[in-house]
Amino acid sequence: MPTDPAGAGPGTAAAHPDPVRLRRALRAHVEAGLHRPYTQATVLEALAGLDLEVSQGVALSSVTAVVRGARPGPVVLLQAGLDDLSTAALVGAARILTRHRVPAGSVVLLLPPGEEDGSDAGRVIGRRVVQAAGTAPSESYTFHGRSDDRVQGIFRSRAGTVMGATDTFSVIVRSMSDRNRLPVAARIITALEAMTTRRSGRVDPVTITTLAMAPDNRLSGTVVTFSEDIRTRTRLEISQLCTTIAQAYGMTAEVAFSGGRPTTLNDAAACEFVVGVVGETLGPRRFEPLPAPIVPAGDVCRVLAEVPGCHVFVDAAATDDAILADASLVLAEVARRSLERLTAG
Q1: In this predicted structure, what is the pLDDT of residue 295?
Q2: Could you give the CA distance from residue 291 to residue 295 in angstroms, rounded to a whole number?
Q3: Distance CA 56, CA 53 (A)
Q4: What is the Cα gyration radius of the chain?
Q5: Strands (E), 60-159
Q6: Which domains, and CATH codes, for the chain?
Q7: Where is the signal peptide (predicted)?
Q8: Closest C-alpha among 29, 26, 37 to residue 1
Q9: Tell me, what's the pLDDT at 96?
Q10: Using CA atoms, how far apart are residues 110 and 62, in angstroms rounded to an integer?
């Protein structure tokens, strides 16, 4: 049983199961990485007693809960981010959906594990959702809370690319002799910076950041792009540029990419659907279009790559707990109306 880090004693989430108390408990005990035992246990306590089919990850600290409708039907996925706001709102949505059960279909509520710099996280999550619901979801809606003291409960998203792709790369300059490789590495850094400058004013900009140079002249850096086509071309251009510069000095360059996340793509129809739900539920002023994609990307990119849907940001002050009732209602309405639309065909 988790203990409230603020000193309220054990079982705080269970004793005060409303989303506000849950959010405050999570905010007081922030966990990072894939293993988040306090978060997992606290969410499980908050869901206890609800008419849900709940399962939990073992190797990964995830929580999956299924709300069954009165009869079988399509499946919709609601996923929270790693922040306290969307996690508490997801629990709030679970309470609404269990009180007002949908006529047909199922809603899968997913609290994911921490971010993972590999390509398996999306597949692991996908398998868990299918195992929990018995069938793959038709639509997915993911939510992430952001702290912004300038606004009071604004929902934001956009059709198409909503978050850019991120890739990590390394370059090793090698020479058959003892010739100094440092000037070659420095030339490569300058050329990569120039590549970023050339792309800075375009519709699909590229940002290349060299993070470090190790004693063995190994360079490491990150690349941010905003379309899969540009991402693929940029990887090729970086490899060709490094190789060409090294060869000009009679050396070779080994370029490797790892830990990449693709662009996060919102389905246009799903995004328009969310805009409508927010407008009809809370009023049109509570939704504002996201003017441009943001970085960094998260593992949600792989969920949306498998199941079309929409990723939504909820911006509110860090201490604004009043937003939780609105956010919980929006999440529940998105799931309910999505199932109604899918059931109607």
Answers
A1: 79
A2: 13
A3: 10
A4: 23
A5: 63-68, 71-80, 104-111, 139-147, 152-157
A6: 3-162+264-344 (3.40.630.10), 165-261 (3.30.70.360)
A7: none
A8: 37
A9: 95
A10: 7
Give this prediction's pTM: 0.84
Angle at 164 between CA 273 and CA 256, to 5 degrees: 145
- Are 138 and 76 a contacting pair, CB within 8 Å? yes
Residues in the chain: 345
How many beta carbons lie within 10 A of that of residue 147, not counting itself?
A: 13
Residue with tokens 């328009």: 272
| 276-330 pLDDT tens trace | 999 999 999 999 999 999 876 677 888 888 889 999 999 988 888 889 999 999 9
List the beta bridge partners of residue 84: none
pLDDT at res. 74:
95
Q: pLDDT under 50 in the chain at which residues?
A: 1-16, 117-119
Proportion of the chain in helix, strand, coil states, percent, rounded to 5: 40, 30, 30
Residue 253 contacts residue 242 (beta carbons within 8 Å): yes
Using CA of residue 190, residue 191, residue 196, residue 198, what is the dihedral sign? positive
- Which residues have C-beta within 8 Å of that of residue 177, sequence separation ≥ 6? none
